[in-house]
Amino acid sequence: MFYVSFDGGATWSHTLTVPVAVDPSCAIGPGGAAFASSVHDLPDEKGTPVLSVYRSSDGGRTWKPSSIRGDIPPIDRPYLTVDDTDSVFKNHIYVHAYRYSRKPAADVLFFPASNEGRSFENILVNRATTFEKPWFFPANGVVGNDGTFFALIAELDDSKRNMSYRTDAASAPSAANAVLNVFASHDGGKTLGLAGKIGDAYYDWRVPQLSLPALAIDRSRGPFRDQLYAVWPDARYDHRTKILFSSSMDHGRTWTAPTVVDDDATDHAANSRPNNFMPMVAVNRDGVVGVSWYDRRDHPDNLGYYARFRSSVDGGRTWLPSVRVSTAAHMSSEDTRKNSGDTAGLAADAGGVFHPVWIDNRTGVPQMWTATVKVQVLK
Asked: Under CATH, which architecture does the 200-379 domain have?
């Protein structure tokens, strides 16, 4: 179900339902255009997951389906990105995902559209870069001021998955089991290639920590213009997941050494180390970097969480103290799915205000919540 707001998020109207679908993604383009994508299950015996894209010319009030070629392979976790720059690729629409199949092996899939999203007739395939048995956790895509499209994708070693419902330290990965790759298209979607590698990752497949990475780019006119930022959950420290951060000043070719961006204490007892997870990152019009995540410092049971937010005004070199943005905790029990999905949300609006989006069950059922976060930059 897709909702639209015309008053800065104060009220919302339901305008689109895609039946039998999961993994929604949406974007706003120039001139009030809106786009929505999802994984739509075909009514076959296997419920084959395929791409579904809708477009709107009136800001999301009414929708029309886009044409998609019929031989698209089964996919998972698509992200929709619109080029809203003033480059020659303005209004190009991109969807990236991965092939939901082990036979043949999972691949990175890229669907470009140069006709304002009316049809997706081309598929670009990128093979795994590191592992013989790969699995992918894609992050969102972003577009630079020159129209370059970037996508961050975690490639995991599927032979080393540690999926379980346990939260104990013994279930955490003991060595690197993934690489974080950044792909780029410099020609409006005609090609997609590997731009650079952020580095190895200790990806934690334990269900309470299962979450995808996130990517952002500075589109401001400030000193960090076009700098890329990445965040992801990582279990290399203390056998628990922390939120790591890295940045690139050269279009994703090289990246800074990862640093911990969540700021909870480090002196937890061995049996009560909280697993922080579900990170998102965004940059506002002033070049302020914002990061949100699900934080468990107040939950020694390692089940519940609050949403927290932290910001940097100097390109990620230093960070202000984090603040809690959710006024109630999400409370989980051992017999429920404890990670509340695989993604959260964070966006910066035209006025520079951040809007984190998260799931909590304060009402007794899991629901989507949001808040406004303003970062005052002293000049």
From this structure: 6 Propeller (2.120)
